[in-house]
Design goal:
By secondary structure, the chain is α/β, with parallel strands linked by helices. It has 6 helices and 6 strands, in the order H-E-E-E-H-E-E-H-H-H-E-H.
Length: 165
């Protein structure tokens, strides 16, 4: 399989999560506005890594993006919604040590690594601590299980009934 297959599947995973957010809330939900999903109360970054095991460095950039958004609006909650092949479904909150591990500077010497390190260095400890209190990581079920959840919610809300009255 090439990267295109996984990119499309990741986008479909994001769309499915958006549908679930819409079905689970009365709030307006936006796709690809602030981040992958946002509403008046939450900003969500989504990553689907079907064949990859979890490591802190694999979530560095999306967490950094969320911190940068948090800096602009501290009133919202921030979430990384992700799937990794070796992680069980569940929610994790993090502490300062874990955030430092996630943001641990890149050891690369490329221009991209230098820019990433500069962005990380710009985050002071006070901002990091405030962010931690408004952030969580939701490890998701896999693609098919999430899709099945949508179908079940459609059935519960009687949205699959296509017969005429």
């Amino acid at each position: 399989m090439d990267g295109g297959y996984y990119a499309i599947k990741g986008f479909e995973f994001q769309i499915d999560k958006t549908i679930l957010e819409i079905l689970d809330t009365d709030a307006d939900v936006a796709l690809e506005n602030i981040q992958d999903i946002n509403s008046d109360s939450i900003v969500i970054q989504i990553k689907y890594k079907e064949t990859q095991d979890y490591s802190d460095n694999k979530i560095r950039e999306p967490v950094l993006q969320l911190i940068e958004e948090f800096k602009n609006d501290e009133s919202k909650n921030y979430k990384l919604f992700c799937y990794f092949s070796d992680k069980s479904e569940g929610r994790e909150t993090i502490d300062a040590v874990k955030l430092d591990s996630i943001l641990n500077s890149s050891t690369g010497k490329s221009t991209k690594a230098k820019k990433l390190n500069a962005r990380i260095s710009a985050i002071d400890n006070d901002l990091r601590n405030r962010f931690i209190s408004k952030f969580c990581i939701d490890f998701s079920k896999n693609y098919q299980e999430q899709f099945n959840e949508i179908i079940n919610k459609f059935k519960e809300k009687d949205l699959l009934n296509c017969t005429e009255d």
